[in-house]
Structure formats: structure tokens, C-alpha cells
UniProtKB/TrEMBL annotation:
Mg(2+) 2 binds at residue 421. The keyword Cytoplasm applies. It holds the Pfam family tRNA-synt_2. Residues 192-497 form the Aminoacyl-transfer RNA synthetases class-II family profile domain. Homodimer. This is Lysine--tRNA ligase.
Length: 500
């Protein structure tokens, strides 16, 4: 829409209701005439994208002698005397013009067209592929059929949909807005790329339970439900981690899953209560090798979607996902930014004093939580390139192996891109004795009111006691990966987001 073009007024509720009544009457008339408003099948021979690919370079006023039968949604309609025009749109946004003339279809069919066909209808047309005098690729219609009658009108195609409409009525968004369609295809290409990269590296895809008797694998508040069949409390999973590690115990040494997680927490520009998550585990790897894997997965996805490691976001900004990404120490980078040395031995009192000075509030503060909150306050917003933030406090990472050379630290990283956490990776804790101790510590936090703390999972500990090989593991939100590649907000990257 031009900057100088004022938006056209949308229909009022009364006008929509009136149009619906008129369109329902047309539906009834189509059925009465035996023309079927919603036929089961149609003699389609071609698609709009295929016809455009074959004849897109046709010169103005040219003919082909080729007859096609295709269907699409009417997004533009102009009825003028003996010649009518409609623009048919396919699901990917490709369009072709349908020309309906008195000479080709006869007076009766032309009048039926004018009386019964509306914007938004799905229509089948059959005829010769031609180019109009203005050079527009067209079908000179010999026959037309209603494919599906729209009883509600489309939004004005010349106006931008507001965000509320885009999110609540995504089907309308997909019809009228090219970016919405691009988002769907970008997500599909990303998923295919991830699976292709994993296949090349001999990873196996599995599925683990959505309903769990014990929530774990992450620090998050779960959704709680009840099974009538088993008369027991169940949880929608917050992470698949503990089941994927059971697969490692069982001998599936390179395993991944892409599926839904559910966390009963706040919703904002980077968080959704329901989201798609990738987790992967590599036996005999560690947090360094899994960082290498994560970088490759993301860079391969960028290539699949954008054709380059330099992606262009929706606002036109270019962002470089290429090259080797920075790896920085959490404690070292925090110390530099805060101007005071902070180590795993720094006391809670000193950390709390710094937090108070900076106005950083920390709920149920311990050393680890204070360090992480202070790091976000001092360092996070200054990151411009994709960056792995390495070596976290042990208190906040109950499933991670202790650092091989730095006491009080675990071998964990968080990957930051575009100012938000995109992925996290570990050298996985596989000592069942230490894991039990960590679970007991988490249970103590839960007793103090920490709703995100994990529970003691005896079944998982039993699996660990059968020996899980050393491993690197990672988790990455698919919605956030799309945000990193496209520059969009989370509600744009989810096809049908949960809204209040």
C-alpha cells in the first residue's frame, strides 16, 4: 500500500452480516441449479505455480493452444459487460488471471458468473493459457465451477491487517499477507534442514511422552492435568530431556526430538506457553562438541531459508550468522562489565549487595541465581554477534556435569542471538550419585516455594544407575530459531499462537 493511499474502511458488523445473508442465498441457488457450492472433486490438471513456471515469459497478446484446469481463491474481481476478470490465488500466493467472455462461455454462464461469484470464493476454471493485451498471464475460460463458496467476505486486500486480526485469524493473514505465507515456508524449510543435518550426522529422531508422571528436564512451572483412566495427576512436559537420556542409556547414541513443550509461565515477545523444541544428545560428546553441532544446525538452516549465512530480517536489517561464533566465560564477562571480580567463590552477601546497588531483584536468591541475573543486567544487551556464554554456576544447573577444572562451575553454555537466549547446551551429568544429590537440593528449593524446581525422579535415577555414557546435549526453541533467521516476533513465527 502506498504511503499516500489512505486505508479503505473495513466493513461494519452490520455490513458483514448483510453480505453473509446475500452469499448464503447464492450458495442455496448454486445447489438448487445443480452447480454445487461445495463439490467433492474437480477435474484439476495443473496448479497456478506450475502454469506460471511454464508460461511466465509469454509475450503480450500471445496464445499457447494449451488447455489447463486449475483452481484458486478469487482475490480480485471485475465484471464489465461481455468480459469479466478474476485474479485467482494459490496457497503460495501465486496468481493467474481468469478471463470470462460472452464469446467463450455463452450468455447464461456469463450471467451466472456475475450473479453467483464473489471475492473470496474458491473457483475452478478450464481454458486456454494466454497472455492478455497488457501481458498478464491468463486463462481464457471455457468452463468454470464453484470449488467452495465463501459466505463471509475477505478483509480489504489493500489494507494491512492489525496484529490482533493476524494472530486470532491466521487463515485471513495467510490469504492477504505475503509475509505470513513466507513465514510458514521458512519454518518448513528450517525443520527440513535440521532433520537433514541430523541425518547426515547419523542422529536418530524419536518421540517421547507429552504426558508425564513427573515433570523434569528444565526449571519451569508445569501445566497440571488429571488422567481419568489412571486416576492420577499428570504433567504436560516441560522438556523431553530425561526420556532422551534414557534412550542414551539404552544405546541410541545420537538421538534428537523436535516436538512440543508446555510451560505454565508468562507470555511475551520471546516466550509462549506452548512452543516447539529441539533437543539432541550425543554420546561421547561434551558441551564443546555440542556447541559445534548447534552452530552447524543454525547455519545450515539459514542457508536453507535465506540462501546465505547473512540473513535479512523482516525490517530489512542484515544479520551475519556465519563464521565461528564467540565463546565467552559467564564469570569473566560479568567481572569485566561490573568492574569487580566475581568468581564461584564470591559470597551471596557480596552478590546481593551488588544486585541491590544495581536495582536487580532476584527471587529466592542463591549464588547461582544472583550471578545469572547480574550477568543479564550487565552483559546480555551488549552482545551483538551470536555468542556462546560458557560455564554456569552449579546451583542453577542440576542436570549438568561439573567443570573439569573450575570448582563451583558446570560445563553449560547458553547461546545468545539477537539479544535473546536461543539455545542451551551441557556436558551431561551421568553420575547417578551426584544426580541424586542435585535432585535432593532441588526438592529443598521446591519446599521453600520455588515452583520451577525439579522433583526427585526415581525412575530416571534408576536408568542412570545402569550407566549412561558421557554425552553432550542441547536444546533449542524452534520459534526462537525462526526469530533469529527472520527477525520477527514469536507470535509471527508460530502459525497459530495461543492468545487470551
Amino acid at each position: 500500500m502506498s504511503e499516500n493511499t489512505a486505508p479503505e474502511p473495513e466493513l461494519t458488523e452490520a455490513e458483514v452480516s448483510e453480505q453473509k445473508a446475500v452469499r448464503l442465498a447464492k450458495r442455496d441457488r448454486l445447489n438448487e441449479l445443480g452447480l454445487e457450492a461445495y463439490p467433492v472433486a474437480l477435474p484439476i490438471t495443473d496448479t497456478i505455480p506450475a502454469v506460471r513456471a511454464r508460461f511466465g515469459d509469454l509475450e503480450a497478446d500471445a496464445t499457447t493452444g494449451v488447455t489447463v484446469g486449475l483452481a484458486g481463491r478469487i482475490v480480485h474481481l471485475r465484471n464489465t459487460g461481455k468480459l469479466c476478470f478474476a485474479s485467482l490465488q494459490s496457497g503460495d500466493g501465486s496468481r493467474i488471471q481468469a478471463m470470462v467472455s460472452l464469446a467463450e462461455v455463452g450468455e447464461e454462464n456469463l450471467e451466472l458468473w456475475k450473479d453467483l461469484v464473489d471475492l473470496g470464493d474458491h473457483l475452478y476454471v478450464s481454458g486456454e493459457v494466454i497472455s492478455s493485451r497488457r501481458g498478464e498471464l491468463s486463462v481464457m475460460v471455457k468452463e468454470w465451477k464453484m470449488a467452495a463458496k465463501a459466505v463471509l467476505p475477505l478483509p480489504n486486500m489493500h489494507n494491512e491487517l492489525n496484529e490482533e486480526t493476524r494472530v486470532r485469524s491466521r487463515y485471513l493473514d495467510l490469504i492477504v499477507r505475503e509475509q505470513a505465507r513466507k513465514n510458514v515456508f521458512a519454518r518448513a524449510k528450517t525443520m527440513a534442514s535440521l532433520r537433514n543435518t541430523f541425518t547426515q550426522l547419523d542422529f536418530i529422531e524419536v518421540e517421547t511422552p507429552m504426558l508425564q508422571v513427573m515433570h523434569g528436564g528444565a526449571s519451569a512451572r508445569p501445566f497440571v492435568t488429571h488422567s481419568n483412566a489412571f486416576d492420577m495427576e499428570l504433567f504436560l512436559r516441560i522438556a523431553p530431556e530425561l526420556y532422551l537420556k534414557r534412550a542414551l542409556v539404552g544405546g541410541i547414541e545420537r538421538v534428537f526430538e523436535i516436538n512440543r513443550n508446555f510451560r505454565n509461565e508468562g507470555a511475551d515477545s520471546t516466550h509462549s506457553p506452548e512452543f516447539a523444541m529441539l533437543e539432541a544428545y550425543e554420546a561421547y560428546g561434551d558441551y564443546n562438541s555440542i556447541a559445534d553441532l548447534t552452530q552447524k544446525l543454525i547455519q545450515d538452516a539459514a542457508l536453507a531459508v535465506a540462501g546465505s549465512h547473512v540473513v535479512t530480517w523482516a525490517d530489512g536489517t542484515e544479520f551475519d550468522l556465519g563464521g565461528e561464533w564467540d565463546r565467552i566465560s559467564m564469570y569473566h564477562s560479568l567481572s569485566e562489565a561490573a568492574g569487580v571480580e566475581i568468581t564461584p567463590a564470591t559470597s551471596v552477601a557480596d552478590l546481593q549487595a551488588l544486585a541491590n546497588k544495581e536495582g536487580v531483584e532476584v527471587h529466592l536468591a542463591n549464588h547461582g541465581k544472583l550471578v545469572e541475573e547480574l550477568w543479564e543486567h550487565f552483559v546480555k544487551d551488549g552482545l551483538t554477534r551470536p555468542t556462546f556464554v560458557m560455564d554456569f554456576p552449579v546451583e542453577t544447573s542440576p542436570l549438568v556435569k561439573e567443570h573439569r577444572s573450575i570448582p563451583g562451575v558446570v560445563e553449560k553454555w547458553d547461546l545468545y542471538v539477537r539479544g535473546f537466549e536461543l539455545a542451551t547446551g551441557y556436558s551431561e551429568l551421568n553420575d547417578p550419585v551426584i544426580q541424586r544429590e542435585r535432585f535432593v537440593q532441588q526438592a529443598a528449593l521446591s519446599a521453600k516455594g520455588d515452583v520451577e524446581a525439579m522433583r526427585l525422579d526415581e525412575d530416571f535415577l534408576k536408568a542412570l544407575e545402569h550407566a549412561m555414557p558421557p554425552a553432550g546435549g542441547m536444546g533449542m526453541g524452534m520459534d526462537r530459531l525462526l526469530m533469529a533467521i527472520t527477525g520477527l516476533g514469536i507470535r509471527e513465527t508460530i502459525l497459530f499462537p495461543l492468545v487470551k
